[in-house]
Design goal:
The protein is α/β, with parallel strands linked by helices. The chain has helices spanning about 5-15, 20-30, 40-55, 60-65, 70-80, 95-110, 130-140, 155-165, 180-185, 195-200, 235-250, 305-315, 320-335, 355-360, 365-375, 385-395, 400-410, 415-430, 435-445, 450-465, 465-485, 485-490, 500-510; strands at about 115-120, 145-155, 165-170, 185-190, 190-195, 200-205, 220-225, 250-260, 270-275, 280-285. It binds S-adenosylmethionine. S-adenosylmethionine binds near residues 123, 125, 129, 156 and 259. The site of S-adenosylmethionine has 25 residues, from loops.
Length: about 525
Amino acid sequence: MARARGSERDAVNASVGGDPVERLRAVVAGRLGLRFDEDQTSILAQVLERRLAAGQEGCKAYLARLEAGPPRLELRALARELTVAETYFFRNADHFRALREVVLPQRLRAPAAARRISILSAGCASGEEAFSIAIVVRETVADPTWEVSIRGVDVNPAALEKAERARFSSWSLRETSQETKRRWFLEEGSEAVLEESLRRAVVFEERNLAEEDGELWQPASHDVVFCRNVLMYLTPECAQALVARISRALAPGGYLFLGHAETLRGLSADYHLRHTHGTFYYQRRQSGELPAPPAASAAASPAELVPVLAAAVAASDTWVETIRRASERIQALCRPAQRPASTGGRPSPGWDLGRALDLLRRERFAEALAEIQALPAESARDPDVLLLTGVLRAHSGQLPAAEETCRRLLALDELNAGAHYVLALCREGAGDRQGAVEHDQVAVYLDPAFAMPRLHLGLLARRAGDGSAARRELAEAVVLLQREDASRLLLFGGGFGRGALIALCRAEVEASGGAP
Ligand SMILES: C[S@@+](CC[C@H](N)C(=O)[O-])C[C@H]1O[C@@H](n2cnc3c(N)ncnc32)[C@H](O)[C@@H]1O
């Protein structure tokens, strides 16, 4: 099937009633929630070949059976074939430090009718995550009157069988300290066997996170959910639905850990972002806390002004000052700009930001702000308006006012990466380098494709004399700038175009000692 080409494939498709691999892709997305992009088509084709070889049916009958609702055995076989069960003990060790030092102490203090904490490892694979949680719990919760339940669920039966055995290779323990190994494992040949009482501390179950599962997702039934490195494999619809279930099932004030490369941005506004121990995680809002609105919109690309930017960088102490100085010169240099063809993104309800964006593009910040102030009073709660106001205030040097605007925006939309970036500029302007770094890091975490906080982190590192961090961040910024959305360059680029910003990064990499 995988190797069928051209007319041969058309003939096969016609005989089975549509492209078999596409039909399998749809079933896998619908039933297991797994996303397979175009470049992973060959994986699906190979699995289809293997499943057909393992059974007695032809392709047409097999696909028809899948589409009618795959029998449980077949779904398990597909889950075994198509899920990625890579995991190890204490993966993202910072999460476990946060669990030990923030989350468990906080949950133990929370008023509870029953002295009970429930922790779920959703997508637990072969159990290393759930057992790492069990070790931390055992070492942290000293009071025996507290009952801690730890549950690991996964759709891959082979991974769960491995979890039940609780025997691990040294590879699974590659991030585990010698002390922890000595304390909780027995060596048997090449395997490390988990201590029996810990093995019994975790219950493993075969569950499909893509299904509504009334028992697993009972309202407010979990205090902590680890769902790490799972969302990244799911279709957007399945990820959204799963996050909604987790939100429903997390007790108010409960915690959610996602993988390092995963965020809730665009998926849920039900959480506060927490940033401790050099890592990020989420805390479920208390009922009654403000729900957040959708993210901001933006517009089109500015002119390239490399020499102006280079001069401004050389003459300024801070990036926000650079923007301000360069803006003064750009104002003198700029020809009248075109009105942006489109503001892109989501239209603002009932008011047009086109003119304010046009003025931003032309570096006429005061007029742009006046334009916004003339909008109806309700606009003051529109995230688009707030973000634009914050940017304009920062770019015109009104840093305390910009900061206040961004904080109001974050109260509405806590996962707004743009607001964190503007706050980083404000903090830098106020002489709070650490605060600036933190806000840039939050922006980078929330939106790994956002180039400007990377660029800013690079400049901050260079000014602090950390050449290697500067080169790393700036090199990353160059990559991101090449594909950065034009509208975001207009909004956050400080009046500089893509080419100018890339040239700045390259010059700064050079000046801080060459390639990272
Ligand atoms: C990469 S592992 C992550 C393991 C662990 N959470 C970690 O971060 O180390 C992803 C796991 O998600 C599971 N998974 C994927 N889709 C699932 C679904 N629909 N229901 C349950 N588990 C699923 C896979 O079977 C796999 O074991």
